[in-house]
């Protein structure tokens, strides 16, 4: 009987603690977010979503039921029915709408000559009870494509030996910034929207990736692992590659997935503190005010946005700046899915 009483007391205490933590999380996040809701369902895992230019549709990558690699889906935010737009085979990633909203940009390795073997190996792993952990696959057959919504035509923009991915458009639609391993390690490049005129803008040791143009198309923000220690930091570089500035510089934190607010006044990104080791680290969303002049960008005030015990990553703003979408494992089953909230702006 004593053991039963102790068990009941502990159970009640744990439940109370959990409820208190959930309530505290809600209160903290309510400072900047409202109407938080899950927007992807029916797929095992989904994430890295982006808005269409009119803000009514999203594109994202997700695992299809029964297939081991991400594919690209679009979904109307009202109907919320996913529609696959990628080839259906091979690794695909990093989708982004063209500025006119008529096509999609994404990277795919569906032309890999050993695709059947790669698929079989992944399926065998799953059948044995294993699971591929999320990681970057620098597939040398990964190239950048544009898919037209109406014609369904798939146009290949890159064809170099090496990984070409993590691409996004300038706001005027004239340029594409992307990550490539064509000259060795992953660096940043810019090309014209038709795939011509490729030029390198960042050439440093270690990984440089996840680039996005600033709202005025004068700067590019990205993540980098200059020390090759997997502790990513944030940088910004001018579109001509002449001016580069580091925005985060904490060796105990991982900083990635930076994205501009449409105002250009601040960014939002994902951060985790590893000072207490991997077990004590959790990914949350933060904003950083920017002090921008003609030839420089300086880091300003940092504000924490999410406080959930589960991971919150890959945040993006809607084109009008009124919505925030991100990938989170705060789902009931712990799977990564896309979440959406009304953005109330930064606290005064």
Automatic annotation (TrEMBL):
Signal peptide: 1-21
Top-level taxonomic group: Bacteria
Keywords: Signal
InterPro entries: 6-blade_b-propeller_TolB-like, WD40
Coiled-coil segments on the chain, per record: none
Protein family per UniProt: Belongs to the TolB family.
Protein name: Translocation protein TolB
Organism name: Thalassoglobus polymorphus
Taxonomic placement: Bacteria, Pseudomonadati, Planctomycetota, Planctomycetia, Planctomycetales
């Amino acid at each position: 009987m004593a053991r039963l009483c102790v068990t009941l007391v502990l159970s009640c205490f744990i439940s109370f603690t959990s409820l208190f933590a959930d309530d505290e999380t809600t209160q903290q996040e309510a400072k900047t977010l409202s109407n938080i809701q899950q927007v992807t369902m029916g797929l095992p895992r989904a994430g890295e979503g982006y808005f269409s230019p009119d803000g009514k549709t999203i594109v994202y990558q997700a695992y299809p039921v029964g297939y081991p690699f991400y594919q690209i889906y679009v979904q109307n935010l009202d109907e919320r029915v996913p529609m696959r737009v990628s080839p259906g085979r091979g690794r695909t990633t990093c989708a982004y709408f063209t500025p006119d909203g008529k096509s999609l940009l994404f990277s795919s390795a569906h032309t890999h000559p050993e695709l059947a073997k790669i698929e079989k190996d992944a399926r065998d792993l799953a059948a044995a009870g294993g699971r591929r952990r999320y990681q970057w696959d620098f597939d040398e057959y990964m190239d950048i494509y544009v898919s037209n919504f109406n014609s369904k035509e798939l146009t290949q923009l890159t064809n170099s030996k090496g990984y070409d991915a993590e691409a996004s458009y300038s706001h005027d639609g004239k340029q594409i910034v992307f990550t490539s391993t064509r000259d060795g390690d992953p660096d940043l490049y810019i090309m014209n929207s038709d795939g011509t005129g490729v030029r390198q803008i960042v050439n440093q040791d270690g990984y440089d990736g996840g680039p996005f143009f600033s709202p005025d198309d004068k700067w590019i923000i990205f993540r980098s692992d200059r020390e090759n220690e997997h502790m990513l930091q944030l940088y910004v570089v001018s579109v001509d590659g002449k001016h580069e500035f580091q925005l985060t510089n904490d060796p105990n934190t991982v900083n990635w997935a930076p994205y501009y607010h449409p105002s250009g006044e601040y960014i939002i990104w994902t951060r985790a503190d590893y000072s207490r080791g991997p077990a004590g680290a959790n990914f949350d969303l933060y904003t950083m005010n920017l002090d921008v002049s003609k030839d420089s960008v300086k880091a300003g005030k940092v504000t924490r946005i999410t406080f959930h015990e589960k991971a919150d990553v890959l945040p993006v703003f809607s084109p009008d700046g009124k919505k925030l979408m991100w990938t989170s494992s705060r789902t009931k089953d712990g799977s990564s899915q896309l979440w959406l909230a009304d953005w109330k702006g930064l606290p005064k």
